[in-house]
Amino acid sequence: MAEFTMELNDEQKEVRDWIHGFAADVVRPAAAEWDEREETPWPVIQEAAKIGLYSLDFYAQQFFDPTGLGIPMTMEELFWGDAGIALSIVGTGLAAVGVLANGTEEQIGTWVPQMYGDANDVKVAAFCSSEPDAGSDVASMRTRAVYDEAKGEWVLNGTKTWATNGGIANVHVVVAVVDPELGSKGHASFIVPPNTPGLSQGQKFKKHGIRASHTAEVVLEDVRVPGHCLLGGKGKLDERLARAREKAKAGGERVKNAAMATFEASRPAVGAMAVGTARAAYEEALEYATTREQFGRPIIDNQGVAFQLADMRTQIDAARLLVWRASWMATTGKPFTSAEGSMSKLFASETAKKVTAQAIQILGGNGFTREYPVERMHRDAAIYTIFEGTSEIQRLVIARTLSGMPIR
Ligand SMILES: Cc1cc2nc3c(=O)[nH]c(=O)nc-3n(C[C@H](O)[C@H](O)[C@H](O)COP(=O)(O)OP(=O)(O)OC[C@H]3O[C@@H](n4cnc5c(N)ncnc54)[C@H](O)[C@@H]3O)c2cc1C
After folding, report:
1. Which residues pair with 145 in a beta bridge?
2. Looking at residues 294-307, what average pLDDT do you find?
3. 3, pLDDT greater than 80
4. Which of 89, 127, 387, 405 to mutate to test the pocket of ligand 1 (most atoms within 8 A of CB)?
5. Residue 171: in which H helix or E strand, if any?
6. Which of 40, 57, 149, 208 is the residue whose CA sits 20 to 30 A from 2?
7. Do residues 112 and 149 share a domain?
8. Residue 191 forms part of a structural domain
9. What whole-number percentage of the chain has pLDDT above 90?
């Protein structure tokens, strides 16, 4: 088990500087263009693939970094470059983690490489859980998966929404209901292989921010997938369902809302994305405040401006510390007794929204235009308090964990 340290080791520093170089030289210069185009920045993903930054190997290395800091460091640097492009690069990771967490060795080996493709033919993947009537309330999911015994196939029907890379993905990971009586305990995840008939893209959303990242509905109409596409396998699912039915019969465990109970370990990664965006806006604001002159002196000479920058930086550093603590806890298997993962995501995402708004204020009229990046960063920052559980859901999780009470 790795000792906790506040300092990245030499190898991590080297990787961080390498990612930062890509973010500064390739991602940031392309940000405004892809934000306006509202399209997946395939050429940038391809560049990332060419240098090994968009690859299963790279993410696996960071995911299994024993200090826990590999993923937050990667997210912070990439999202410092640009949130929309960065999400296009790391969005596949959400689906890959779904397979790594629940899949068998064989499933991981078969499907995760197909999610990334290769440098000459890059692919992306999508993780599809949310539905029009099941956002925060994951337990009200309706997409059904029914097993066709005769053919040994699962048949999926339903509509997913807000799926990052939905419809353009090579591989879709779809969460569906296998036993409606069991709430979120009756859900299972399925691989939908490339070109499976019945899966189509619905509406593609025009968004407020992270516009370079593709977000769309995914429609599943009699989608048939082979039995081996059930993540974890049928034996494991049957055992899990039997246990859940026993508990439900005994009147024991309250069936929890999955959105409130899970993701504790993955939320710090979203916090790290928020730290990256916040830091980028803060740096722009600091630079502007020291060079912009009014009343014959740089605007940072005014306490009103300087103190804002002091608060911005303090909050960003505090957010990073919460993120690093939670990532280290996740990697070293420490129990999240105070919902530390949710705390990190809540604080970092709210910080990003606040800091990017302050950056606009410090840049004045220029901050309000698309000539300067802080306007885009503020639009992008709004997503962090919404996806992977809204800020309200994080507060619910934290309050319930601390109190043990079923706070609504
Ligand atoms: C750009 C983008 C990308 C996304 N990518 C993916 C993806 O790849 N895969 C995927 O599955 N999903 C994805 N999502 C979905 C995302 O996770 C959901 O939007 C999120 O969980 C919130 O659900 P909702 O939008 O239905 O809001 P709702 O759940 O309807 O919430 C609306 C408001 O009510 C509040 N609220 C709800 N319940 C409570 C409560 N109990 N107490 C207090 N307040 C409450 C919420 O905090 C929010 O303010 C994405 C969303 C966006 C916008």
Report:
1. 156
2. 98
3. no
4. 387
5. strand 171-177
6. 57
7. no
8. yes
9. 90
Average pLDDT over residues 294-302: 98
Report DSSP letters for 351-390, one per residue: HHHHHHHHHHHHHHHHHTSTTSTHHHHHHHHGGGGTTTS-
Alpha carbons 168 and 245: distance in angstroms, whole number: 37
C-alpha 11 – ligand 1 centre gap (Å): 37
Of the pLDDT bands very low, low, confident and very high (cuts 50, 70, 90), residue 252 is low
Per residue in 202-225, pLDDT (tens digit) is 999 999 999 999 999 999 999 999
Rounded distance between C-alpha atoms, residue 40 and residue 23, angstroms = 16
Task: Tell me, using a 6 A CB cutoff, whether residue 392 lines ligand 1.
Answer: yes
pLDDT for position 319: 98
pLDDT value at residue 318: 98
Whether 109 and 207 map to the same domain: the answer is: no
- Position of tokens 């048939």? 224
Query: What CATH number did the domain enclosing 368 receive?
Result: 1.20.140.10
d(CA 86, CA 34): 11
Cα(60) to ligand 1 centroid in Å equals 28
Query: Which of 143, 159, 214, 386 maximizes ligand 1 atoms within 8 Å of its Cβ, making it the mutation to test the pocket?
Result: 386
User: What is the share, in percent, of the chain residues with pLDDT greater than 70?
Assistant: 96
Compute, in angstroms, the gap from residue 175 CA to the centroid of ligand 1. 16
Query: For residues 78 and 75, what is the distance between their CA atoms, to the nearest angstrom?
Result: 5
**SS percent in the chain: helix, strand, coil, step 5:** 55, 15, 25
Predicted confidence at residue 262, as pLDDT, reads: 47
The verdict on residue 243 lying in a domain is no
pLDDT the model gives residue 7: 87
The residue with tokens 């990245």 is 8
How far is residue 95 from each of residues 39, 99, 185, 266, measured CA to CA in Å? 20, 7, 20, 12
Q: What is the pTM of this model?
A: 0.96
Concerning whether 388 is annotated as a catalytic residue, the answer is yes
The pair of structure tokens assigned to 81 is 């470059």
Q: Which stretches of 20-139 are assigned E, i.e. beta strand? A: 117-118, 121-122, 125-128
pLDDT score recorded for residue 52: 96
Q: Is the pLDDT of residue 261 over 60?
A: no
Helix H or strand E encompassing 130 = none
Are 285 and 223 contained in the same domain? no
The answer to whether residues 181 and 214 belong to one domain is yes
Residue 252 burial class via C-beta count within 10 angstroms: exposed 0-12, middle 13-18, buried 19 and up: exposed
